[in-house]
Amino acid sequence: MTAMFVNLPVTDLERAKAFYTAVGFTINPLFTDHNAACVVVEEDHSYFMLLVREYFQTFSDRPIGDPAVNVSASTAIFLDSREAVDASMASGLGAGGSEAQPASDYGFMYQRQLTDPDGNILEFGYMEPAAAQQGPEAFMNQQA
Fold this sequence. Notes:
The protein is α/β, with parallel strands linked by helices. It has helices at residues 13-22, 53-56, 82-94, 129-134, 136-143, and strands at residues 4-10, 26-28, 36-42, 46-52, 74-78, 104-105, 109-115, 121-127. 28% of the residues lie in helices and 31% in strands. It has a four-stranded mixed beta sheet. The protein has a four-stranded mixed beta sheet with strand order 5-8-7-6.
């Protein structure tokens, strides 16, 4: 089994947990304490580890950047529909997130960028099934 854990530094663990549950994820209490919270994106596959900055610093001798000032990563999560993208965005905005740029609509793919309260960037997107399986041209050929 392959699983992916994305570690994110946060300044306020409780606020971060509230934000990530508001956009539709859950917290795994077995791997959550005062230093970290395990956010389940997709059970058995994809997770965020929200780490208080002091604890995150123990993973590297290099200084931690401030994601509110310097972008170093953007995590894209694709959902089952455009409506699901918009619903996740609305929940995230209501939980203290922000949207710095307008939605991108490429016809075959729709994406919106949500910044969490610490400045970490999540991109919620939807891709038409034909494009996901056979490339954008397959979707465009269906539309012609």
